[in-house]
Amino acid sequence: MKDVFSLEAKLYDKIWGRYDYDSDVEFLDTLFREYGCKRIIDIGCGTGGHSLRLSRKGYYVTRVDLSPAMLKIAEEKDKDAKVKFIQGDMRRLNKLALEKKFDAAICLGQTFSHLLTNRDVGDFLDGLRAVLKKNGLFIFKARNAMKIRE
Fold this sequence. Notes:
By secondary structure, the chain is of the alpha/beta class. It has a single domain (6-149), classed as Vaccinia Virus protein VP39 (Rossmann fold, 3-Layer(aba) Sandwich). It has helices spanning 6-16, 21-35, 49-56, 68-77, 118-131, 145-149; strands spanning 39-43, 60-65, 83-87, 102-107, 132-140. The longest helix has 15 residues, at 21-35. 33% of the residues are buried.
């Protein structure tokens, strides 16, 4: 399978490197502590801005991204992180080889905007239901994909 994000992976940190990941992670940390979350899945993790920081705070993080190039860059950033890397499609989470269910899932940045059809969203949510524990948290950012496309 061709990695359609390989060029973006090379530029990702140049474009998003100034983003305030620390503030996001402080918010997530407060929320996760309040709800007793320990195991987190970062869906569409890109080069790992959120997941590396969460790992450093002691969370067990599994990163999922469609792009092997994105995952490679994320892995190179911090070889000591307690992070598992899985290359896979967010629309097929229930088909990935995941060992346990998660307390929480994050899908941040532009990731959710890659779901362009109702079927894509439905497939993603079905898979999400399969990988989250009952009453697990799902934190996501959604932008209008049609506006981005324009």
